[in-house]
Specification:
This protein is of the alpha+beta class. 39% of the residues lie in helices and 13% in strands. The chain has a four-stranded mixed beta sheet. A four-stranded antiparallel beta sheet has the order 2-3-7-6, with no helix packed on it. The longest helix has 24 residues.
Length: 411
């Protein structure tokens, strides 16, 4: 395994490292192993947990370098973005040793089991119950808006464990094994035609005592950390690559077959397009002969500034904490920036397309990525905590303004 020093040198010249170590005939799992061994998957994590103790900017640099060279980037998904950092902050050493290596090497995929049909914005009111059963728990309830739940090996579960404890002290954060009886995952068809989100029905699924993270009854504090990482990740860059975990059926695929080429490098799903909106819309404007229009360049320049601003907000370096959680408002700022970038990209893209923006099939620019983004955009202002609640968080906790007692959402 490469040393921390070696990783630091690689970060100084990522293009050369990628050129020397890339082999299109590797499987995706083998390519991800090379990145992980070189401490390039999560370079901002501590060295003892497959990181390099590097700057929080380092992870974004690796993603940008992979995208620039049109190579599959490190494993993405909620394992790297949310579960790993949460375990580093609140988990114990056995939990980190059990789960983090597979996350870093892309061998497992994770989902987030927080929101419920009647407990979305007011997260502390979740009704899913975890009842003591021997030395573990039995879980019953329903979760919704679970991203890629059908592909997840493990879930980050927030459940009620004490009906008598005060609000915010009656919840526990669990690792839930998704491959067991009592878990039924149903994809939800969205306006885009895709099924990114799912609903999950849990009926008697079991959780081991070793999979309680942060202590019984401390789930609200742990969940707030998870949400902080989620909000920061929404404005971070997205790598081009495959789906982690065995259920995604991509680990054995040839890595060279996952490399985008030509204009397709700028297309893809609306989720990916949000992280390279400027370049995608430049391609749309060029394709439609509008690249020389000064009004178009004015709009694109505004989008470019927003994207660069988002890049100055690196994800926090996750560290095990012995005391109280950090106060960090970058997540709310990043979430609002990501939402703003999405809506601005949607508006610019639809303006470029004009009446053709009404076409969701047939002859479409860049395979209809702008039309899909237009349909997907409202979700970005809702998930991870709505834009309104992020403004409340900043107003109350960063600026010290009076508390808004009307809006109660997940904070």
């Amino acid at each position: 395994m490469a040393s921390t020093t070696g990783c630091t040198g690689a970060l100084a010249d990522l293009d050369r490292w990628l050129a020397e170590h890339w082999d299109p005939d590797l499987t995706l799992e083998q390519w991800w192993a090379r990145l992980a061994d070189a401490r390039l998957t999560v370079p901002h994590w501590p060295a003892e947990y497959l990181g390099a103790g590097a700057s929080p900017h380092a992870a974004a640099e690796v993603i940008h370098a992979a995208r620039r060279n049109r190579l599959p980037g490190p494993p993405a998904g909620l394992g790297v973005m949310l579960a790993g950092p949460t375990l580093l902050e609140h988990g114990d050493d056995p939990q980190r040793r059990r789960y983090l290596p597979d996350i870093v090497y892309g061998r497992t995929n994770w989902c987030q089991l927080f929101s419920e049909p009647e407990s979305g914005s007011d997260l502390a009111s979740v009704r899913t119950r975890a009842i003591r059963d021997g030395d573990g728990w039995r879980v019953t309830g329903q979760k919704v808006w679970t991203s890629n739940g059908q592909l997840a090996d493990f879930g980050m579960l927030l459940a009620r464990t004490d009906d008598d404890a005060p609000r915010h002290r009656n919840l526990t954060w669990f690792v839930l094994d998704m491959d067991q009886p009592g878990i039924d995952v149903h994809p939800l068809r969205e306006m885009t035609g895709r099924s990114l989100f799912t609903e999950v029905f849990i009926d008697g699924a079991r959780v081991r005592p070793v999979d309680v993270v942060g202590g019984e009854g401390n789930g609200w504090a742990v969940a707030r950390s998870t949400l902080r990482y989620e909000r920061q990740s929404l404005s971070a860059g997205a790598a081009v690559g495959g789906v982690p975990g065995r259920r995604g059926d991509m680990l054995s695929r040839r890595a060279g077959g996952l490399v985008p080429s030509g204009a397709s490098a700028a297309s893809g799903t609306s989720v990916a397009m949000r992280h390279r909106a400027f370049q995608t819309l430049v391609d749309v404007a060029r394709e439609r002969g509008q690249l020389s229009d000064p009004r178009v360049w004015d709009q694109l320049a505004e989008l470019y500034v927003l994207e660069r601003a988002a890049e100055t907000l690196p994800q926090s370096r996750p560290l095990p904490l012995a005391g109280r959680p950090r106060t960090d408002h970058r997540g709310s700022v990043g979430k609002l920036l990501g939402s703003r970038i999405t809506t601005r990209a949607r508006d610019i893209g639809m303006s470029l397309l004009g009446p053709d923006g009404l076409l969701f099939s047939g002859d479409r620019s860049l395979n209809g990525i702008v039309q899909e983004l237009c349909l997907f955009a409202p979700a970005v202002s809702i998930y991870g905590g709505t834009d309104q609640i992020q403004k409340n968080v900043l107003a109350e906790r960063a600026l010290g303004l009076p508390r808004d007692n009307v809006t109660q959402e997940k904070r």
